[in-house]
Amino acid sequence: MSRLDSVTSKARRFVAAFGRRPDDGKPAGARDTEDPSLFRPLIYGDPTRLHIHPTAVVNNALFNLSSGEVTVGEYAFFGHSVSVLTGTHDWTKFGAERQIAVPQSGRDVVIEEGAWVSSHAIIVACRIGAHSVVGVGSLVLHDVEPYTIVAGSPAKVLREIPRPHDVVKAEFDQHAGVGEVGAE
User: pLDDT, tens digit, for every residue of 38-67?
Assistant: First the structure.
């Protein structure tokens, strides 16, 4: 394999990791009229610390990887301009020292399967549970349980989302009366 083929292959794998069409950088299913720049994440820090499942859609998110790893699970999706931050500074330092005093690890972010992070949300060093929803413009500073809707600044729990097996059971219970005694 030539050097050019090797570089091209690596570039295609990188593009595939972000679920993009190789011709224009848009995710599969994007409309032709959509601006491709809306689908390019901004990565600050070591890109090897970013793990995005190929089915996830992160649009133009900002990923700050300076103090930890970020993992985005299957079918998770983001609105536009979401910020996912692992970085922080040592507040016990002052002046120029504070600007460069950044811990190298310990502030990971995990966004689990099917989570929906709405536009302009800020996620700071926490876990977003599977199938949860983060409202528009929310500031998330603590873990979010699976099947939970949070919103606000700071984000607070608004409600629980029915789990799929609960929805099926409720539908079954609703139809349980059909065909009972007296119904013809």
Answer: 668 999 999 999 999 999 999 999 999 999
- Rounded to whole angstroms, the Cα distance separating 77 from 115 reads 6
DSSP states along 155-170: EEEEEEPPPHHHHHHH
| 117 Cβ contact partners less than 8 Å away, ≥ 6 residues apart | 76, 77, 78, 79, 82, 111, 123, 128, 134
Helices (H), 18-112: 96-100
Q: State the pLDDT at residue 99.
A: 87
Contact 71, 110 (CB under 8 A): yes
Q: Which of 21, 20, 61 is nearest to 44 (CA)?
A: 61
Q: In the 8-state DSSP scheme, what is residue 26?
A: P
Domains of the chain in start order, with CATH, are 41-175 (2.160.10.10)
Rounded Cα distance, 78 and 38, in Å? 11
The structure's pTM equals 0.73
Residues 6+ positions from 121 with CB-CB distance below 8 Å: 78, 79, 82, 83, 134, 135, 136, 137, 138, 139, 140
Per-residue pLDDT reduced to its tens digit, 76-90: 999 999 999 998 888
